[in-house]
């Protein structure tokens, strides 16, 4: 490709060469090729996305658009000024590339009003909502996109992850079945399969996550799913490498969170704190980044006061941020401030239908020995999500407490196993 003189390269040549440079991490050369693409034609969305992710500003990208007159005799720039949709599209991707998810979502939502039922924009909106934790909205938009185009595969692995979080295995099974019939070779399909197998067979799930990376080594969700699987199977060193791989391609909230959790699992507090602070630098006004620093401090008993300050700061930035509220409530519970924990959590009951909120309330009530209230909240959690393991285990413990039994005492079967072992040794 490099043997073709620059002036002789057409649009397709520049696009292919840009991809090749990007894969081989020759970013400056990739930028030059993608810029040439937009000088040929401003509607090459792949080039716009790539330039945004490679650090170009929206102003620089828009300046590349041709200024030649249109058939109407008006310059293209005049047409763009009248609609401004293409500039806004560029701005949205530049916002997301710089971790300004809220700004990017606002622009995409504005574009969606202009082009209702546009599958491409619906998918971009849903993906951003998934990354920032607006899970219900993201699921709704992914489903809307699928209803318009049942053969869409783009970002369907993101949709699969959300269905797994919601424990909606009926929809997840149906989605994977559909994707396998549409295009089984796509990396999104391998990630969706990995998510599906995660609850049944960790090894098989990991095989599918690795397959997605083999198919496309730039597919970020493959690295993220692989990282969390490695964490779940107690391989934090390998998880660090997977999350680092995701960050090199496109840093986002999930790769930072995974990296911090991996370092904490390795008891590398210094590295965990450094990764969390890097996230705060990337997203200085993000409640999630601030909460992540709090998580690092909360992992060490001597720095819980600092953790409390960071959690409170996260809630000031985003008062409805449930994860920060749950983390702060857990801190109150550990330090014996049970009334403070209940007061904090009760504020979220009106507007929240999250099973994790009811689980946390149940745990605090159980610690206060208010067993009936704890029972009610565990039951509420299981009504919202029958697959919630924390609620199931908590309810088991609570039932033992209500019968006057020690919830931490070994099961009868375990005692029998010990007795049998003793008998064997005596024989």
UniProtKB/TrEMBL annotation:
Residues 389-427 are annotated as: Disordered. TPR repeats lie at residues 355-388. Residues 390-406 have a biased composition (Basic and acidic residues). It comes from the Eukaryota. One of its GO terms (cellular component) is anaphase-promoting complex. The keyword Kinase does not apply. GO terms for biological process: cell division; positive regulation of mitotic metaphase/anaphase transition; protein ubiquitination. Residues 408-427 have a biased composition (Acidic residues). Keywords: TPR repeat. SMART domains: TPR. The keyword tRNA processing does not apply. This is Anaphase-promoting complex subunit 7. It comes from Kalanchoe fedtschenkoi (Lavender scallops). The lineage of its organism: Eukaryota, Viridiplantae, Streptophyta, Embryophyta, Tracheophyta.
């Amino acid at each position: 490709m490099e043997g073709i003189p620059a002036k002789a390269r057409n649009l397709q040549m520049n696009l292919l060469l840009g991809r090749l440079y990007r894969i081989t991490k020759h970013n400056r050369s990739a930028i030059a090729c993608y810029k040439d693409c937009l000088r040929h034609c401003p509607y090459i969305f792949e080039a716009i996305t790539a330039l945004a992710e490679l650090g170009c500003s929206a102003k620089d990208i828009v300046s590349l658009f041709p200024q030649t007159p249109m058939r109407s005799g008006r310059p293209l720039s005049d047409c763009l000024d009248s609609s401004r949709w293409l500039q806004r599209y560029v701005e949205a991707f530049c916002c997301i590339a710089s971790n300004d998810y809220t700004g990017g979502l606002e622009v995409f939502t504005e574009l969606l009003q202009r082009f209702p039922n546009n599958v491409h924009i619906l998918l971009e909106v849903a993906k951003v909502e998934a990354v920032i934790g607006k899970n219900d909205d993201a699921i709704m938009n992914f489903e809307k996109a699928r209803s318009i185009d049942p053969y869409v595969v783009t970002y369907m692995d993101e949709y699969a992850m959300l269905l797994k979080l919601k424990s909606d295995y009926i929809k997840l099974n149906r989605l994977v079945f559909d994707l396998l019939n549409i295009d089984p070779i796509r990396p999104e399909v391998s990630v969706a399969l990995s998510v599906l197998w995660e609850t049944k067979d960790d090894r098989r799930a990991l095989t599918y996550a690795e397959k997605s990376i083999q198919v496309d080594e730039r597919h970020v969700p493959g690295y993220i799913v692989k990282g969390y699987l490695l964490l779940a199977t107690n391989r934090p060193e390998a998880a660090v490498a997977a999350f680092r791989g995701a960050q090199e391609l496109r840093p986002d909230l999930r790769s930072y969170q995974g990296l911090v959790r991996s370092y904490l699992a390795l008891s590398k507090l210094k590295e965990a704190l450094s990764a969390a602070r890097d996230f705060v630098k990337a997203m200085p006004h993000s409640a999630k980044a601030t909460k992540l620093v709090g998580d690092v401090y909360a992992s060490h008993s001597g720095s819980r006061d600092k953790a409390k300050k960071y959690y409170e700061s996260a809630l000031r930035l985003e008062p409805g941020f449930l994860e920060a509220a749950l983390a702060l409530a857990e801190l109150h519970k550990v330090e014996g401030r049970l009334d403070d924990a209940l007061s904090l959590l009760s504020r979220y009951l009106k507007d929240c239908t999250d099973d994790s909120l009811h689980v946390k309330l149940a745990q605090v009530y159980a610690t206060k020995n208010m067993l009936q209230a704890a029972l009610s909240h565990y039951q509420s959690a299981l009504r919202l999500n029958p697959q919630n393991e924390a609620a199931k285990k908590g309810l088991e413990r609570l039932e033992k407490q209500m019968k006057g039994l020690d919830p931490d005492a070994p099961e009868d079967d375990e005692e029998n196993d010990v007795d049998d072992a003793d008998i064997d040794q005596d024989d």
